[in-house]
Amino acid sequence: MKKTIKVGIASLCLIMGLAIGTNAQSKNERPALILSAGPEAGIPVGNWNNYYNWSLGGSIQGDLAIIKRTLYVNLNAGYTNVFADNAPGIKDLQLIPVKAGLRYYPVNKLNLYVQGQAGVTFITNGTSLYNDKSTAFVYSPQIGYLIHLKKGNYLDAGVKFEGNSKFVDGGESNNTIGIRVAYAFGL
Fold first, then answer.
1. What's this model's pTM, rounded to 2 decimal places?
2. Which of 86, 83, 80 is nearest to 58 (CA)?
3. Residue 24 near residue 54 (C-beta atoms within 8 A)
4. Labelling 106: which of 6, 24, 85, 159 has CA 20 to 30 A away?
């Protein structure tokens, strides 16, 4: 499964590169308000990789332009299931991340963006996993591309790192590297 996710990330990077090349010559005005929804997948990194294999979930996001349609403020909420390894006593982990952040398009004619978000992750099954906490701080830098499909519709594809603070006192942080591919439309 980890190999499949790595191939998926490499394919996403290739698609983004092709999209940048084809859209670079076209005039592409981004909407002032963009809503998106789609799946997310990732692989745990660090020591968390010893207990969990991969994650799958989805999220919805709203982006609102605050400076000339190059800087957007956004809100994101979703659900993620982190699938446990077959170690005894380790169960899947269900998370609900809620984040706010900024998205910046550094080149006006391209839809390439960098994004940073921070917020809180709610651990829905924390007590059954002997976690000390039911919430954790989360931060998520992302780089991606908004691929223009047709008037007002886009495919939002990005690669991201998601870091969570400790779920257990004395434990370690819980991080994943993953992708988000969402259908986006402007209002």
1. 0.80
2. 80
3. no
4. 6
Domains of the chain: 2-186 (2.40.160.20)
How far apart are the C-alpha atoms of 157 and 8, rounded to whole Å? 11
d(CA 42, CA 105): 24
Structure-block tokens of residue 25 = 């010559």
Contact 156, 16 (CB under 8 A): no
Judging by DSSP bridges, how do beta strands 71-84 and 112-123 pair with one another? unpaired
Give the C-alpha separation, 38 to 99, whole Å: 16
Pairing, β 93-104 against β 52-67: unpaired
Residue ranges in the chain whose pLDDT is less than 50: 18-26
Cβ–Cβ < 8 Å for 84, 93: yes
Q: Where are the alpha helices (DSSP H) in the chain?
A: 2-23
- What is the tens place of the pLDDT at every residue in 72-97? 999 999 999 999 888 777 788 899 99
